[in-house]
Amino acid sequence: xxxxxxxxxxxxxxxxxxxxxxxxxxxxxxxxxxxxxxxxxxxxxxxxxxxxxxxxxxxxxxxxxxxxxxxxxxxxxxxxxxxxxxxxxxxxxxxxxxxxxxxxxxxxxxxxxxxxxxxxxxxxxxxxxxxxxxxxxxxxxxxxxxxxxxxxxxxxxxxxxxxxxxxxxxxxxxxxxxxxxxxxxxxxxxxxxxxxxxxxxxxxxxxxxxxxxxxxxxxxxxxxxxxxxxxxxxxxxxxxxxxxxxxxxxxxxxxxxxxxxxxxxxxxxxxxxxxxxxxxxxxxxxxxxxxxxxxxxxxxxxxxxxxxxxxxxxxxxxxxxxxxxxxxxxxxxxxxxxxxxxxxxx
Length: 346
Description:
Elements: E1 2-6, H1 12-25, E2 30-35, E3 48-51, H2 60-70, E4 73-78, H3 81-87, H4 90-97, E5 101-102, H5 107-114, H6 116-126, E6 133-135, H7 136-140, H8 145-148, E7 151-156, E8 166-169, H9 173-181, E9 203-207, E10 212-220, E11 226-238, E12 241-247, H10 254-264, E13 268-276, E14 282-288, H11 295-299, H12 305-313, E15 330-332
Parallel strand pairs: 1-2, 1-4, 2-3, 4-5
Antiparallel strand pairs: 6-9, 7-8, 7-9, 10-11, 10-13, 11-12, 12-15, 13-14
Helix pairs in contact: 1-12, 5-6
């Protein structure tokens, strides 16, 4: 069994955990890392490195499929949102027919996850608490402003991470919608042109939720069976990623995780960001169907999702303890250095 982690970047720890999971099986297996940058730190922890073009390049799928066949990849794990989008639907089916299981959503579910407005409608239908969300164009016409409250959040509808994020009041929101639209990408990642009028439907406005931020991992097997949730309270952020966290009892988040997993038909791990308000309601503010930057905190507390992946890809049962993280374990990320080549790159 060979595993390929794409857009692995700085996640050396994830490469190591998959290598350890494979080694425990006692059967042959290698962990490959792929990226468009040959100097990524994660290649130092991998058995070998695969250089790919950017996932929006015309030859991305051709090169990826060729490398998967050449290296006999049985499990492909995308670690970047744009790759999830590029592989969802037909590309994943083509890879599967050639012997590689790519962990992606169905195309319809992936499109909804990428669309903050579309996800808010899905969440409401599935009974998932998420902030009330309106299109920028609606608020420019003075519709729905009152129902969102006084404190608001402006975001790019199809943005990643904190793209276009602005906290403001209802009094100032229209000006921020206009400025945000100038840099808002469309659903294909294309940025606006100076020659085209801004599209205010590419901006969303949400009611701002105050509370404590948590990260949740909803975990299901490769047949779409939801199995467990892992949770941690965020203590500190750095460059948009959880930098310090403490593991917590996941039971208060179990229903939210299950509802999201069922609603989008996920396989594997779903990274969920939520804010818990003073009444104890977890409000979902972001969902990514992949390993996120918060999973390591639960791994250090005893969970082992890479081991689950290896077992499931062999059609074997997981050890139930791999889905459990001890509450109260505080962890922090830190800097480290590694050589990534022997001087063979300019």
